[in-house]
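Practice problem 4.
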């Protein structure tokens, strides 16, 4: 998977992508205190026709927040929207665990 970064309001989002010639996406959202690495086994089991994205939510893993900035769910939603808009993702399946699953309710 290719590591990428995206400037976000208040920091930098770090994410990893495996892309195919498709606009079908699976995005994994990790739990609080975890990182993208928690989905290592699941990624290898995904169908080949999907593009895969895993991220470290702001303030987690390799994603950075500006000094003094706090984690906020609303900011995380905006990060997600910026990511899908930036890559012009259309057909998206979201898989979330714990905090990542709670995020789905807010999105």
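Answer key:
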């Amino acid at each position: 998977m290719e590591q990428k970064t995206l400037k976000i309001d208040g920091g930098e989002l770090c994410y990893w992508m495996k892309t195919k010639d498709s606009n079908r996406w699976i995005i994994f959202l990790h739990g609080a205190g975890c990182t993208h690495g928690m989905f290592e086994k699941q990624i290898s089991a995904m169908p080949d026709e999907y593009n895969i994205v895993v991220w470290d939510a702001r303030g987690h893993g390799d994603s950075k927040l500006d000094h003094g900035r706090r984690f906020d769910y609303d900011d995380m939603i905006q990060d997600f929207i910026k990511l899908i808009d930036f890559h012009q993702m259309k057909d998206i399946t979201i898989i979330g665990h714990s905090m990542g699953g709670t995020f789905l309710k807010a999105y």
